[in-house]
């Protein structure tokens, strides 16, 4: 009976540790994403001001284009967003030890991720379309 209790306690501790680690990893990725996004928005603003200033100096009437991030940047930012916004659920079947992935096709955004989603669309995805 003591072994069964120890095994059950170990299983519960493992489950809780994995959930806490996943939550911590998603929060860290959100912070990194926010920093990258703010840098990208600042860069876009600087380039737009520079292009407008140059256009005024040349007395041109051409339009100033929006900054289009490179495909690699768009890809990384999108994958990073999906990592923290759409976590998959890993299930380990006991005692067989099989691991399955559930909810792999779901997109359930938390309220805290909605502004990030809007910025991803506005600054990363739409300018390239």
Describe the structure.
This protein has 129 residues and is mainly alpha-helical. The protein contains three helices and two strands; from the N terminus they run H-H-E-E-H. The chain has helices spanning 2-57, 71-85, 114-125; strands at 89-93, 98-102. The chain has a two-stranded antiparallel ribbon. A hairpin with a 4-residue loop joins strand 1 and strand 2 (98-102). Helix 1 packs across helix 3 and helix 2 (71-85) runs antiparallel to helix 3. The protein is rod-shaped, with a radius of gyration of 22 Å. The N and C termini lie far apart (63 Å). The mean pLDDT is 82.
Write the layout of secondary structure elements.
Blueprint: H1 2-57, H2 71-85, E1 89-93, E2 98-102, H3 114-125
Antiparallel strand pairs: 1-2
Helix pairs in contact: 1-2, 1-3, 2-3
Could you give a short description of this structure?
With 129 residues, the protein is mainly alpha-helical.
Q: Which structural traits does this protein have?
A:
mainly alpha; 129 residues; 64% helix; two-stranded antiparallel sheet; 3 helices; rod-shaped; 2 strands
């Amino acid at each position: 009976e003591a072994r069964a209790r120890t095994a059950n306690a170990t299983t519960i501790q493992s489950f809780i540790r994995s959930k806490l680690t996943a939550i911590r990893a998603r929060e860290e990725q959100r912070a990194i994403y926010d920093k990258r996004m703010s840098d990208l928005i600042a860069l876009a603003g600087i380039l737009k001001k520079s292009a407008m200033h140059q256009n005024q100096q040349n007395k041109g009437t051409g339009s100033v284009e929006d900054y289009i991030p490179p495909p690699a940047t768009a890809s990384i930012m999108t994958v990073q967003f999906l990592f923290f916004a759409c976590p998959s659920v890993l299930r380990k079947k006991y005692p067989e030890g099989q691991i399955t992935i559930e909810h792999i096709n779901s997109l359930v955004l938390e309220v805290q991720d909605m502004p990030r989603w809007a910025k991803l669309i506005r600054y990363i995805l739409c300018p390239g379309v």
